[in-house]
Fold this protein.
Amino acid sequence: MFQGFPAGMIIATAVAAAAAVTAAEKPAHLPTIYVANDNCPDYTWGLTEAATRRALADLVAAHLDEMTRTDGQRFECRNRYNMAVTQEAICFLEHYPQRKEELIRRIREGRLYVSSYFCNTLWGMQSAEGAIRSFYPARRLADEWGFQLDSAQHIELPSLPWGTASILAGCGIRSLTVPYLDYDSTLKGLKCPPLFYLEGPDGSRLRVWFDQWASAKANYTQGRAVLAEESAPNEWLEHYAALGEAYPLAAILASGTHGDISPKSAAGARVYADKIINFNLRPHRPATIVNATFDQFWQAVDEAEARGAKLPALRGCLGHSWELWPVSLARYVAAMRQGERDFLSAEALVALAAAVRPELSESTQDARRRAEWCWTMLADHAWNGTDDANRRHNAELRRGWGEELERRSRELTDAAWTALGGEPEPGRLTLFNPLSTPRRELVRVADVSGAPCGVSHQGRPIAMQTVNEGEQTCLYFVSPPIAGFGFCQLGRHDEPIRTNAVLTAGRDALEGPYYRLVPDAITGGIASLVHRPTGTELVAADRGRTLGQTVYFEGQERLLTNVSVEPVACGPVLARVRIRGRIDGTEIDVDENVTVYAELDRVDFDFRIRKPVSTGQQRLCHAFPLLGDESVLRVAAAGAVIRPRPQPDGDLLPGADPRRFAVGEFLSVASEEIVVTVVPWDAYALRLDLGPPMFEALGNDQNYREVSRDQNGETEFRFRYSLRAAPGDSGANAAFGRQPATPLLVSAVPADIGQRLPRVDIDPARAVAICLKPCDEPDRGTVVRLWETAGRTGSMNVGLNGYRAAYVTDLMERDQRRLEIVDGNVSFDLPAHGYVALRLK
């Protein structure tokens, strides 16, 4: 027996009791069904952007009208509405600015719910920082309008990445509802209770409503289903009663009424309000139906827990089911990933420059928020469409958002360098490391005509090398060690540098002090890759593929033919071979550069794909057969590093899709002796159902029915990967996952720049910073967010130079406590695999 539903759930008893009371009363012993009015805010799925924003605004307006009309009704019959994304509030104010105070009043009254998510994101392809930024608009409204923000809704996607628990809990969000559409997913096999605590990798807990039965029954229009037929509430009551102790409360949630947003959505507001009123007027109703917000349902859960109800706790990932759809617009995904990294680099430079030019935070605020908007909207899930015209519209939006994000990142970087002052000094370069990890990094100067012929650091010359790259001649060198968020000033040096030959490049081998590679002139991949310090062969020869091999499928598998291998560079900095070929039976040309370095411990793969437009169901993959079958694969994805196998060997809960994953910063393959870390710069879609791990770089076979089949007409693609092997655990290699794809920022500024700016020193063996940014309110200083990567709970020290105050905040910058700065250091507790944010003044 449990709260509200006696064992066996005798409906007849409840019906008889209901008959003895008047329709104006709510019998205390009747179960409650919370019908949550909402829509599925598919941004531009089936509509233009303008039509979408108008439809969202009109729907909110219609529900506000219904609130006024039903104010005189009893509590459960008063109309309420749930804005499934914060964007709905923004769209409403665009079209109905005169009703702003009404909107705010209804939110404060609890009649209008605001979800924490700005848009309907592909949350499996978001980075942790990207996910956090998608909550910022809601947090700003909550602060300005004075309402609580402690629950979230994420609608439609049949997935739940494990890192969501840590991210939302760190943002102060306690509860999450996930009504989903079981399409193109494996969740028919889901075996978990409808209501549970999801425990994140760091031990944080998020209360989750993720109901397989309700979503299979009615997708994300469960409230509509309950109201559709007179007998429907009985069916729902009987189902939950039969769950016994797996559902320990009398409150039932039926999420969703309107379905996909359309210009006709607003007309449904009165329909659903009246259906609820009429149901509650029945003298023999089996339950009370509440026209509800999600917060009301969670309050009922709070009350049940206070009475002793125990919700089960789960640890693990519920997969990434739809997050691979954007491979159908692969060039725009690559732009999104690079744009995110460039924006974060620009923010870090702005944050430090603002320490000496405080006005910079305020003057760049609008540009930073607009860039953040583009970044967030690029994660919106409508990378598909209802027809060719709609798919083209959605593709063009994403192309434009990516271009704007990149443009604004450049403008912010330029503004920060300008704010640092001084005139450019010919022949001098200043390097900025926008990551928290100290490193040496490759510097590429494309415009050789304006570059110094030689550079030095502290009077010592640095080896440089020119490389012909198509029509460009580029200059390469490796920087001196640069501290995390640190600067390095280089001077001019005109004398040539003599170095011993440590690199070799030929058709049969590419070799440096760290790696020896043997190209395969048949497959176009790498047949052997030996980690020279340990002598370990990294390519698993028994996996049926070579490393980096291009595999194309369009009705049948097609491989590279007419392969040529030629050395194209060998000098004091790098050695490179070019591998060329054409996919058999097609006009798809593959041009790949493979590079090793004299002073950098990594191998870089750079694929240029020229592919004519085609629309048949297809995919183009790059194979990564690393180590052996006994190795352990880990994937950094959506705020967590997961083992992408079913439990207990991996981290996937029953029902999660084991075939495909959205990779964030890196994947690693670990044996007992060595860990190989792969950083995908541009591709992200990992396939584990095609033999060895493969990145599907581009294709249209993920939801072929709805996605763009022609890559929006794009024919030129670039996919880069970096690889490093090292003894030790995979956590120690997490820092490398951010380095190759995040270049140093280069400019010419006064030589004393590093001495004039504050410093933040983070132990890279314990944590990495996922951002360093100006506070959202310009006068509050700087925020740095950390991710624990060593898997160790305990005290963490951060060195601070130039800051006079430090606070621990939640992940949305709300102060929690002040830290004492002792000898330039602050100390705080950091859970294993967890996140923490600091505000610095």
